[in-house]
Structure formats: structure tokens, C-alpha cells
Design the sequence.
């Protein structure tokens, strides 16, 4: 046989490793299903019954491609956000939209700024398009807005990434703090404000932003509060010229039809999202109680997960994580010190948390051996 | 406000136009739904009842991300194709996988070869990554394999695109012809063999290809025969080093969970796909009859649509198309002469084709005025 395909240098340079190993892969390795699925910040409480019914009703219609303009869902989102439909773009989860955003702005060698230990999939996309990542450390377990903006100015960043509430720590800044930060964004830098967990945050966490502000794009998702992680519906809100630019690169027919229709139904069920936020609050409290009972500390969280500070180093936390997984509890943890002293536990059902209460002391003991 | 984001030159150069305008956009313009949806080569016969049931059962579980490795679906596909799971990658429709394929191979300025008038979404991706498209004309309404390979050699193409059966003409080459062509692929060129419509083609249309052959990647989809266009499940089969490379760039968690599970159920329902192929065959015959009754000619087709030769030029065909749409029949047509003397009509239900039989003579008359 002859020579294979010729990959460009950039592609050759990329690692073959993947950002996350999913729970199904781990279950196949373990040879049994997890007893509690608390690692991916999914919503164990599920989507609105309206969304479930809408998706079931649409199942037989799935022979049709989805509306490539996402008209109805976009219109409802715009109404609720107080923007125009031209300020909104839908995509295959925030992951998909982050990819498009990096592709739109980052040419090989361009600088991008993020926090060391923030969302790995953003970094995956930046590497994938040849961007150069500059990372600043967390400060007191918070993303350090001042340091991010200083670094962005220093390296003339095309993008600066900030998640609020933050993943993996669950910490947050008030909307006011972010509003003030907007004026410090360097000319020509776009702030990527990832608000995946905003539904769980205290009132006032979402900054008021003029939808035509060219300095920022905010990202939202149906994967967390709305319980539709497997549907893949994320969206970005920003100035019209930026939103139009996504049409140059996105997979126009990339969205699942039932997902589009399910997301619209989910969005309209205000009761359900309120209920879920309440259930998540109760679950976070219980995780705090379970942690305390084992002598470890749940950190405050504005998201649907809790970072539990194990009080030692990363090696210890990794040992605890490994023991939890071996005992059938799927959890994840921060990648970078000193945040990697924690494990990250998603809000679970009471039954999930019963398992956690049973298994956490065992895992802590195993790790101490 | 300050300066907006700084787009790289490549992005600035891209047009804001989109590859296809969907039927929903046209319906909103018309102010009423289409009477017959025959423009996007969807399967009006729908997916297997097994797939519908599987997706409905999974609706409440959609709070979970899909298995990012697509393990179960990939295993079943591999079994049926006689390859290993390491020869298969899943993606968000062939559209998604074409995008990844172009990204993997094409750096700005790299040459790519296709037929003039072949799939526009492939061209969209090539432009989007800065590739330089070289187009060769159809020959007797067939993609011209010799000309494609000659051009690929001449311009040292990274990719050469061939759809078999062809879209938009429905013409095809035998598997044997393609097998012989494999040895003429230039060193370092990858043949992208788009087999989206293969389920409808005569036996022997799919070439036998060694899965480890580094010169070709074949693309298949659940959007056509399997009736899951709105689910967004496509796959590529190729040599393991190439398939591994997709993991460097794909949106690992980009697939819809219910779609993944629905596709697996659809794949296992051999009876349904046989039935659909039969129904499509009957529909194509009826389109032939309807065309003949109006004095126009349906061309032979190995796909789930028919190119109907109107016997005049592109302006005339465009006028007929416009009249069909105004009368409530969604159809499309080839973009490039001389194929643009045709309109392209997807296989419809008997009720759809009753509408076509009623409306086609009216549209032909309108266009002749």
C-alpha cells in the first residue's frame, strides 16, 4: 500500500489524549455500572416532564432535519434574555460553541488566557487551533479576574476565558464585579464568559451586559439546570456581528431535532427549573453534612456540585478518588494544585447520597492505608 | 464601546452565506407549511419503530451525557461492516465528519478536488479551513472518476471527494470501478468516499475496501435509509491511524444520547430498512410516471431521490422550482450547468406524490408563461 494522508504540522503536533474519560468507559473497565453517577455535573433530577414528553412526541418525526436557524428556540431565548434573536446562536453544547469561538478568533500562535485548572475542553480547542495558552493561578479557590485581565493585556490575548460560577471549584463572583471588569478588557480581546451553572447561582451573579457589547460573549447551556446534557444544546449570546460570524463556521444542520424541541419545552417550564434548583440546594447541603461527618470540608458552591476539600495534597485526593470509583461512585476532581486537594461531587438524589455517605468513609480510609 | 474581536484573515475572508436554506425558513416566508417535503432527501417513511421506541425510552435518561466513545453503536457497525471498532468513528452527521476530515488534512492553501456541482457542504468546510478547491465537471451526469484522480495528481490534492451514489444526480459507479480507481489515487491524497445513499443502490455498488487501506475513508449515515436525519448520526470507516486522528479534533461529547441509542436500534432492524428500500423504489417509479405524464424525464437513480430532466436550461428549471415551492412542494435542484436543467425530487409517500402529480403540471405551465 501507498503513503497515507498528509497531516498538516499543527495536526501532527496534537496529542491523541482526550479531555475527559466518560463514566461508561470506566464502567466497562470496572465490569459493573456505577452505583452513583456524580462526576459530570449532570442533573440527576432529569429534565422537565414537558421536555421528556416533547422529545417523545418528536421521536417519529426525527426523519426531518432540524431547523438550521433554530428559529423557535432562539426566539424564546431572546425573549427571556431581553435580547434579539440576532444576538443568539445555538450549538452542540457549550463544548461545540467553544470550539467554534476558538476557530473564529484564534489563528496559530495567537494568545489565549485562562485560569490554570479551568475547563479542559476549552484548552483542548485552543490547542486544536494552534493557540498559545497563558494560564494564571486561582486565587483563594476563585478565578482571579484581575490577573486574567492583566495577563490578557500583557500577551494581547484574542480570548480570555472566565467561568462564573466556576468549574471545578463552584466559587463565583458577583455580577457587579464582572460588570466592573468589562471596562478593563483590553481592546481586541473577547471575554468568553461561561455561565453553564448560572441557574444555581445566587441572584445577582449574572452581570448585566449590553447585548451589543463587542467585548464579551456569554455561554449558556441546557446541560445543567435543565437536565439535558445528553441532548447537546448550548447557546451563546453576544453582539450581532460576532453572532453572525458563527454562521461562517458552524455545522448548520448539526443540532438534533428532538433536542431543539425538548429544550424549548424545558425553557418554558419555570416550575421545574425552580424545583431542580431547590433539590440541588438540598443535595449540596447533604454533601456538606456527609463531608463533615468524615472530617472533610465542603466548599461553598454556586453550581450543582460541591468541591470537597480533603485537607491534604493532590496525591491523597487522587487516591480517595480512585477508591470512590472502585466502590462504585463516579466523581471527578480538579487537575491542578492546590485545587487538586479537593474532589468534586455533583448534586445527587437522596439515594445517590446514601451511597456517598456509605462509601466516602471507606474511600478515605482506603487512601490513608 | 471599544474595538471588537480581531478575526484572523481566513475568517474575515469567508462568506456569511449558508450552504442550504432549510424548508422551515421557506415555510416562514411562505406563511404556511409545505404540502410535501421532498427537498432534503430525508426519509419520509421515517425511522424503524424500534428506533422510535428506543429514543422514547431514553428521553427521561437524557440528563446523562452520551458515551463519548460511542462504544455500543461502533461495535455493531464494525461487526456489520466486517471491520474492527478501531476502524470506525461516529460524528454529528456526515456534515460533522466532513468538517473534521477537512480540518485534519487541509491547511490554508492546500488543494482539494471535487466535482463541480457536488455536495456544497463539503465545499463549505474546505473554504472554511482555507483549502483551495479544484472542480472537475460531471461527465454524462456522472461524477468523472478519471478526471477527479487526474486533477488530484496534477494539484497534489490532500483530499478528493466522490459521492457514490452521487448527489444531486442519483447516478452511480459500480463497486468494481471504484476498486480499480483505488490504485490510481495519488500518493498522499485521501479519497473521501461519501456513501450516504448506499442503502438504496444496487448490490455491488459499495466497493470492497481493506479497512486498513490508508488511501480512502468511507462515510455513511443514518440520515437517509435509516430515517434519522434529525438525529445527526454519521460515521466514517477507515484505517486505524486516520480514525485515531479524529480524536484529536472532534467534539467528544457532541453526540446526542438518544440518537446514539436510536441509531443502534435502527441498525438492528433489518426488516425495516428492507421495507424502506422497497417503498423508495416504488416512489421513484411513481416520480418517473408523474414526470413522463408531463413530458419530462426522470433520470435513473441509485439514491432515495430522482433528478428530473426538464429538457431546457437552468433558468427554466429554477422557474419551475420556484413555482413548485410556491405551490407548496419543497424540492431542490443542482447548482451547476448542465445538471441544473434538472430538479431533484426526494422519494415521497403516496400522499406526497399525489401532491406532486397535481402540482408539477401547474409549475411547468407557470414557468413557461
Sequence:
Amino acid at each position: 500500500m501507498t503513503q497515507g494522508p498528509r497531516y498538516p504540522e499543527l495536526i501532527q503536533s496534537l496529542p491523541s489524549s482526550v479531555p475527559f474519560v466518560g463514566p461508561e468507559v470506566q464502567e466497562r473497565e470496572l465490569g459493573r455500572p456505577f452505583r452513583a453517577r456524580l462526576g459530570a455535573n449532570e442533573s440527576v433530577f432529569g429534565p422537565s416532564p414537558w421536555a421528556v414528553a416533547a422529545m417523545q412526541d418528536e421521536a417519529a418525526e426525527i426523519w426531518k432535519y432540524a431547523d438550521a436557524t433554530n428559529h423557535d428556540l432562539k426566539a424564546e431565548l431572546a425573549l427571556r434574555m431581553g435580547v434579539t434573536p440576532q444576538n443568539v446562536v445555538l450549538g452542540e453544547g457549550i463544548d461545540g460553541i467553544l470550539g467554534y469561538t476558538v476557530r473564529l478568533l484564534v489563528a496559530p500562535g495567537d494568545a489565549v488566557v485562562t485560569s490554570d485548572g479551568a475547563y479542559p475542553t476549552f484548552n483542548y480547542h485552543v490547542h486544536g487551533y494552534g493557540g498559545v495558552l497563558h494560564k494564571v493561578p486561582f486565587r483563594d479557590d476563585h478565578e482571579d479576574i484581575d490577573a486574567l485581565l492583566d495577563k490578557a493585556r500583557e500577551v494581547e490575548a484574542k480570548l480570555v476565558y472566565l467561568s462564573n460560577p466556576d468549574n471545578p471549584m463552584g466559587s463565583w463572583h458577583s455580577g457587579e464585579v464582572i460588570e466592573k471588569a468589562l471596562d478593563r478588557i483590553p481592546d481586541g480581546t473577547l471575554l468568553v464568559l461561561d455561565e453553564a451553572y448560572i441557574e444555581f447561582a445566587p441572584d445577582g451573579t449574572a452581570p448585566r451586559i449590553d447585548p451589543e457589547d463587542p467585548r464579551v460573549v456569554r455561554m449558556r447551556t441546557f446541560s445543567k439546570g435543565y437536565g439535558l446534557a445528553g441532548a447537546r444544546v448550548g447557546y451563546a449570546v453576544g453582539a450581532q456581528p460576532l453572532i453572525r460570524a458563527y454562521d461562517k463556521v458552524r455545522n448548520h444542520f448539526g443540532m438534533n431535532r428532538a433536542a431543539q424541541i425538548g429544550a424549548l419545552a424545558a425553557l418554558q417550564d419555570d416550575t421545574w427549573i425552580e424545583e431542580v434548583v431547590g433539590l440541588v440546594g438540598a443535595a449540596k447541603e447533604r454533601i456538606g453534612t456527609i463531608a463533615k461527618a468524615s472530617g472533610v470540608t465542603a466548599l461553598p458552591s454556586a453550581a450543582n456540585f460541591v468541591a470537597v476539600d480533603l485537607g491534604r495534597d493532590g496525591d491523597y485526593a487522587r487516591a480517595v478518588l480512585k477508591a470512590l470509583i472502585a466502590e462504585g461512585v463516579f466523581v471527578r476532581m480538579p487537575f491542578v494544585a492546590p485545587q487538586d486537594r479537593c474532589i468534586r461531587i455533583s448534586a445527587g438524589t437522596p439515594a445517590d447520597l446514601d451511597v456517598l455517605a456509605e462509601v466516602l468513609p471507606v474511600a478515605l480510609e482506603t487512601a490513608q492505608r
Summary: Chain B has 13 helices and twelve strands.
